[in-house]
Each structure stands twice: as C-alpha cells, then as structure tokens.
Amino acid sequence: MTVPGAVPKPRTDGAVVASHGGIAVGTLQYQQRVAAGDPMRLDPRPGQVVGRDALLAEVGARLAAAPRPGVVALCGLGGVGKTTAALEYAYRHLDGYDLVWMFHAEEATGLLAQFHELAELLDPAGLLAQPDPVARVHGALARLPRRWLLVFDNVRDHAAVRRWLPPQGTGHVLVTTRDGHWPASQAVHLGGLTRAAAARFLLDLAGEYDTASAEAIAEQLGGLPLALAQAGGFVASTGRSLADYLELLRRNRAGVLERGVPSEHRASVIATWGLAFDELAATSPGSIALLRLLSCLAPEDIPFRLLLDDPAPVPDAVPDAVRDELQRLRDAPFGLDDAVAGLRRHSLIGPPSAVVSVHRLVQAVTLDQLHPDDRAAWTEAAVALVEAAIPDDVMVPEAWPRCAQLLPHALAVVDPAGWALGTLASFLRAAGDYATARTVSERRLEALRGTLGAEHPEALTVAADLALYVGEAGHEAEARDRFAALLPLLDRVLGAESPNALNARIHHAFYIGAAGDAARARDLLATAMPTLERVLGPENADTLAARDILANNTGEAGDAVRARELYEALLPIRERVSGPENWQTLIARSNLARWTGEAGDPAGARDQYAALVPVGERTLGREHPTVLFALAGLAAWTGEAGDPARARDMFEALLPVRQRVLGPEHPNTQATRAGLDHWTRLAAGT
Questions:
Q1: Where does the DUF7779 domain lie (predicted)?
Q2: Residues 445/459, Cβ–Cβ less than 8 Å
Q3: Type and span of the H or E element at 150
Q4: If you count Cβ atoms within 10 Å of the first and of the last residue's Cβ in the chain, which end, N or C, has fewer?
Q5: How many Å apart are CA 659 and CA 389, to the nearest integer?
Q6: Phi-psi region of 453 (alpha: psi -120 to 50; beta: other; left: phi over 0)
Q7: What CA–CA distance (Å, rounded) separates 332 from 330?
Q8: How many beta carbons lie within 10 A of that of residue 1, not counting itself?
C-alpha cells in the first residue's frame, strides 16, 4: 500500500526538489528537478490497535531524545504485535515526516532490492555517484533537510542489520525484531496486552458481549495479540461463540491454536514459534532443555540460577529421562548462559537477570509438544529442583528472600499435600504475611483431606496451623472457634498430652484472650502450665510461648504489675534459649515494655520500645508486623510520657503502613487509627 504525500511548493534557493509529491534529497551545487514517485510506503494500517498507547508514547519519546538518526527497536516474542505497533506509530505520525519507508528485513537479498527501489526514488538521476544502493540511500538521507522514518520489519538480529541502518541524517529508524540481545539504549520490549485490553480486543473481533469468556480466553492466551486474533478469526469463521472457543481451548489447546489465522498474518502461533524451536533444537539443545523446565513453573520471575547454577549433581528425585540434560546445563562452563542466550535470541524468555519470565502461552505450547511421559518427567524435575532449593531453616530472616522467590513456583508445581507448601507457609508466618500463609495452608489442607482424610494426623496438624494463621491475619474469634472445634479431634486421634494437642490448647487460650476474655485465657493457661512443663519441658518452645501468653493475659485481666513481673522472669530465659534477636524474644521484649508502662512507668516503656525498634527493623525488616507493633507501642508511650504531638505524628506515619501490610480492617490497623484520633485530640488540647 502507498500513501500519497503532499505536493511541495517550488523552491528557488538552489536546492534539488522532488515533484509529484516527492521529497527534497539534499542541497547540491546546481538546480535540477528529480522525477520521483510516492515518498511513503507502508503495509496496510492495522485494523484494530488496543492497549498500546503508552508503548507508542514511549517510542515517540525515545526517538525524540535519541541522537540523530534516532533508532528504537521493538523487541519481543513472535506474535506479540511488534509489526502492528510499528505500523501504528508510523501512521499516527505521517504528518511529522516527509519520507516514511518500510523494509521487510527478513532476508538480505530482498532487503537489497528494496534499498535499490528507494535509491531510485531518492536519487533517480544517480547524482550521488554510488553504485551501492545502500550507500546511495544513506547518502541521500544524510543530505535530506527534513525528517524521515525508516521501518525495518522482522530483523533477525542486531549484527545482521547494522550495515543497513543510516549512519547520518535528521530522521528516525524503527526496527521490529525477536532478538532480545538488542542494545538496551535502543530496545523497547513488548509484552502481552493487559487482561482488560485483550478482552476488549477479542470482543470487538468476535462481535460479542460475553466479557467473562473474553477475559478467561485472554488469561489463557496471556494477552498475546496473534493468539487473540486467531481466536477472533476462529469464532468469526466458524460461527462458534467465545464460550465455545474457551471450552475448545481447555480441551484441545494445540489443535485450536493452529486455526483461525488472520489473513494479514502468515502463520499461526504454533507455526511462528515452531521455526524458533527447530533452530534451537539444532544449534542450542540446552536452550530447549531449559525452556522445557521453565515451562513447568510459574511464568513470572523464575529464579533459574538458583535452581540450576550449582556445580552439585542434580537432586536424586530428578527422573533419569531428563537428568543428563539438566546435568549438562550445570556442568558445562557456559552451559546455562548459552541456553539463556539462545532463548533470548528469539525472545522466548524475557530479559534475564537472576530471574527470567516466560510467556504463559510459550509454556503451554512447549509442554503440549511433549509426549505425556516426557511432560511428566520435566514436571517431576521442576518439583525436585524447587524442593531442593528451599532452605533448611525458613524461620530466619536470611532465608526469606529465597523463600519468596520460590513460593509462586512451588504453588505452580509441587504436590499441595506435600511438605514443601507447609514449610513455605511457616516462612510466610515468620515473615509476617499471615494472609498468604492462610491461603497456602487452606490449599494444603484441602489436598490432605482429599487424599488422607479429615482425621489423619497430618491433616489435623495443618488444620491447627491454619487456625493459627487465621487468627494472626486478624480474625481472632474465628481462630478461637476453629481451635475449639479441633481440640476434641486432636485429643481423640493423637492424645490429650500429645505435642500437637498441647500446642493447639495453648493457641486456643491465646485466641480466647484475643477475642476478649482475658481472665478465662489466663486461667486456662495457669491450669495447663504444670502439664506443659512435665510433658514438654520447662524450656520447650511451646512452654515458653504459653508463659508469654499467660503473662499477657494476666495483664489484660487487670494485673499489670504481675504481668510485668512475669515478663521480667521470662525474658532472660527467652534470650538464652531462643537468642537475643529471635522474633519470639523480640515479642517478649515488646510485651515487657507495654506492661512496664501499664504498671505506671510510661517513660520506661517508651525507652524500652525505642531500644527495641532498631533491633526489629534490622533483623525482621521495617514493615514486619512485630516491628509495627513495637512502633505503635513507642508512639503510645511517647504520648503517655508527655509528648502528645509527637505521638500524633508517629501514629500518622504508622497508619498507612499498617493499612498496606495488614489491611484496613485488621484489629491492629483499627487500633492505630484510634490512637491517631486520641493523640490528635490531646495534642490540640481538646
């Protein structure tokens, strides 16, 4: 398709001008009119472009800021819409350029012919005296006084196109490529459309109003424009509904992804990626092995180096069918690096760092191509590698970053009834993410009940963990009721003095107190203490936890002095047994500070909290719930010690953090809001 340009006014300044809608090719030393054709050549404008306004704005800004001639490369997976974005940019900016020319840059032979054609347009009389059409075009563009835009579509790699890019001139160059190795200063990486944009695109193509099906299809296809266009084409050509397509996609993904190819596209998603798969199988088999492993995991932020960059043998649980392939990735000096580079060359993975992302549809197509036995082997390998990477002690803060990296991939691939999710739920609790700990435990409990039965000891243990996480997420009454229902089962199945039953009894008492009945909680724990010390030992972790809860509820029931004395006796034991910076020790210190204040020493409470907060921030993190609790105590006792304005300011700073970390309805967030209101009134003298 050609787009006519405007006819320029005659020039009288000695410059060469083009007639019939042509362009000026430069100021030479003599006058001459150059007969020229149409100065703009583009493929047809895309019929529908959604969700790319921000991207196109970024392209424009990058081109405007780049040294002339500015170069921007749209990099991405095949089918992600690079050509569509480039064309849309060109059409939106036609008025800003005097020349717009699109090259199909897959092969050098075809590209040379296209340069010859443009050279004849720019320099029809051969005034530049260059036999090489590329040099003629570059020379003409360097002399062209007005702006131009060249689009190089489907460039194989940066090195291959370098000689074709104009080195001088006042124009812009826009490249589309699957090569993920493009220089970062020029690269703009395309991803899939957002779910909302993809659904809108699909609804427009299909002429339907079934938003739920459109959004579900968009999720399944990862917002990939070519796959969405195929879906719309299939629905339009077969008369099926989007709901039908969704069902077909779930039942026969590989078959349906071969169909519905739009007329403006040359190949389906599977065929488009198949060329890359074939090339990698021949030139970089390690890339194929890595892609198969990555395809078994969650699509985002896969810690591939954590899983594979280890000289040790792969775990024993990795099946023999894939063991050698994974071991080669570990053993070869650059095995993993070369595999990553191969995948990146085709944009089959996102830009790598310590983690990498894979489009969910690439994952699906990769696994669909495998025999079921091979697919199972790669899945088992992914499970083995994820489980082997989980730290031995997830309760220490040093382990939390690794656990956080592994969690989404464990959720994607490991057996929900297995040990791994239980261990990661414990990490979440220690790190203060109680809501996610609850979600993970609910998933694990459902799986255990389905496989082992509701009264299996392991299922009962996880049910107790879940009750604890429910309470820590802010639902104290629900946690109390869960423990109350669970205790008879634990007593009957495991025994009333089993460690699990005793642990549940401790937490049941805790949530009785947290739900408002401190005196009953105190009495239950006072009755239980001799049994705990006899069965578990006086310095067992659960026994010490019970002493902590007993002391706190003693204070809540009205005896602040006794609560302070109990904490003063407990804290040295906690420090010796658990360590001075253990999170449970820090909780005991926090509670001692509180009851010091409640017993009549607000300045002492303030100073204890002031000493505690830096330790908590350093060991647990600034936004850990235990640290936030200490900050609330510091604010309150600062006010009680005589500085209401400072207390107000501290609560004001704390409230948005607690709202974000715990949620607006969590009891601790509500207490912070009440504290802010209280000290605001006192600071104002009202």
A1: 281-374
A2: yes
A3: strand 148-155
A4: C
A5: 33
A6: left
A7: 6
A8: 9
**Beta carbons of 190 and 55 less than 8 angstroms apart:** yes
Q: Is 561 left (phi over 0), alpha (psi -120 to 50) or beta?
A: alpha
Three-state DSSP class for residue 661 = helix
Provide the 10 A C-beta neighbour count for residue 649. 17
CATH 3.40.630.30 fits 17-188, yes or no: no
Residues 6 or more apart whose Cβ sits within 8 Å of residue 501? 487, 490, 491, 494, 495
Instruction: Output the six-digit token pair for 421.
Output: 């999710």
Alpha carbon distance, N-terminus to C-terminus of the chain: 76
How many C-alpha atoms does 112 have within 13 Å on its Cβ side? 6
Domains of the chain, by residue range, sit at 17-188, 195-256, 269-389
pLDDT digits (tens, 9 = 90+) for 628-662: 999 999 999 999 999 999 999 999 999 999 999 99
Say if CB 304 and CB 314 are below 8 A apart.
no
* Long-range contact set of residues 613-616: C-beta below 8 Å, sequence gap at least 24: 615/581, 615/586, 616/586
The reported pTM is 0.79
Is the Cβ–Cβ distance between 546 and 585 less than 8 Å?
no
Bond from prior residue into 69 cis (ω within 30 degrees of 0): yes
Q: What integer pLDDT is reported at residue 556 of this predicted model?
A: 96
pLDDT at 36 over 60: no
Residue 669 has pLDDT above 60, yes or no: yes
For residue 112, give both structure tokens.
């040379």
